[in-house]
Backbone:
């Protein structure tokens, strides 16, 4: 049996999210944690300062994994400060890629990938519920350019898990729950 285990070369690639609600923690805290399976992301810590934007400003959207320019969207008048996966209002977002059916991730012209959704939502949200509204509005208006994702979204009072996958070729937006 031991020799069979030595030659078993299956690779497990899976991010892991843990979500803890107020009722499940001993002190009433809300917590999420996130471990990425990507060896290329170790040591990265993103920072966006809060900022006021002039009317008519546009935000360049780049694919989080590749850095490819995806398109532009209107910028909001004020964005919140973000460090890593949490903003100044303690809204935090993690993700787990589960892939899903390949034909559902093919949306020509879609510009919102999972990483852009996370960081744009953190810059624009004061609560977890608001982050969900921002993310779903963005994919509805600009399409979803990623495969299936499970997002962990928390603030000091609530924790949510949101599953999202594209609608497929010819249909802008995403199916989410």
Residues:
């Amino acid at each position: 049996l031991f020799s069979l285990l030595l030659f078993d070369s299956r690779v497990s690639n899976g991010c892991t999210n843990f979500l803890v609600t107020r009722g499940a923690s001993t002190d009433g805290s809300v917590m999420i944690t996130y471990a990425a399976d990507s060896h290329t992301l170790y040591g990265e810590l993103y920072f966006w300062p809060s900022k006021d934007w002039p009317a008519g400003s546009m935000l360049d959207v780049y694919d989080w994994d590749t850095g490819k320019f995806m398109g532009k969207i209107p910028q909001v008048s004020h964005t919140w400060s973000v460090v890593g996966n949490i903003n100044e209002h303690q809204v935090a977002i993690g993700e787990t890629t589960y892939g899903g059916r390949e034909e559902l991730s093919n949306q020509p012209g879609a510009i919102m990938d999972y990483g852009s959704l996370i960081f744009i939502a953190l810059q624009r949200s004061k609560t977890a519920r608001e982050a969900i509204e921002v993310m779903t509005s963005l994919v509805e208006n600009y399409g979803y350019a990623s495969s299936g994702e499970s997002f962990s979204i928390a603030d000091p009072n609530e924790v949510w898990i949101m599953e999202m996958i594209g609608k497929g070729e010819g249909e802008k937006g995403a199916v989410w729950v």
In short: Residues 128-142 form the longest helix (15 residues). The mean pLDDT is 88. The chain is about 20% helix and 30% strand.
